[in-house]
Design goal:
By secondary structure, the chain is α/β, with parallel strands linked by helices. The chain has 5 helices and 10 strands, in the order βββαβαββββααββα.
């Protein structure tokens, strides 16, 4: 039976869970030239074969040579576009570093509650999202450079009819330690808390 390897695509790097040490290990592709406001992994497209080789070697250093028994459970930023999502899946599944991949936005991993609101920040957007039963019902993105936290919270109150007529919890995803202006706007999810939640993910639940 395939074994799950939790993995996080963050603002600046990729974190892969090492089950032997119960720790996340960081993969950074050498010699990349990231562009402002564009996710770093876009640079992989210029050196796909090289990047896939280095990632496979990185995986082998953690899980050995028999990588075809593993499924990568990839957690991506909440503002990941459909095209980016496809690229991420194709990049890793064709790297030879796994049997298959499954993908989930960060917001869906924040809580096991039936309904909640997630607020997160990438290098380009603040994302406000209403999640119900592990599905995104409504999502709004705000430019990270001009976002007004008060406007985000005001929008959160009327994001969906469920929110207007029910007491829906708000989770602040501080995995990238960049949510200072939102710290008191909801229940804070620290990097340590987030990584613990991700380390427990199983492919069947993604």
């Amino acid at each position: 039976m395939a074994k799950t390897v939790p993995m996080i695509v963050s603002n600046k790097a990729i974190f892969v869970y090492d089950r032997q040490t119960n720790q996340f290990r960081t993969f950074k592709m050498p010699s990349l030239n990231p562009v402002a406001n564009i996710p770093f992994y876009h640079e992989f497209a210029e050196k796909i074969a090289e990047c896939q080789y280095y990632f496979k070697e990185f995986m082998k250093s953690i899980y050995g040579k028999k990588l075809n028994r593993y499924v990568l459970a990839i957690i991506v930023p909440d503002d990941t576009s459909r095209l980016e999502s496809i690229f991420i899946n194709e990049f890793f599944v064709n790297s030879g570093a796994c049997k298959a991949v499954a993908q989930m936005p960060m917001s869906h991993a924040l809580s096991k509650e039936e309904r909640f609101i997630s607020i997160s920040k990438s290098i380009r957007n603040v994302t406000l999202e209403y999640v119900r039963n592990r599905e995104t019902v409504v999502k709004k993105c705000y430019d990270v450079h001009t976002c007004n936290p008060e406007q985000v919270m005001s929008d959160a109150e009327v994001l969906h009819i469920d929110v207007e007529y029910n007491d829906i919890p708000i989770y602040i995803n501080n995995f990238n330690a960049n949510m200072d202006e939102f710290l008191e706007k909801g229940e804070l999810i620290t990097p340590k808390m987030f990584m613990k939640k991700i380390s427990e993910i199983d492919v069947e639940k993604v």
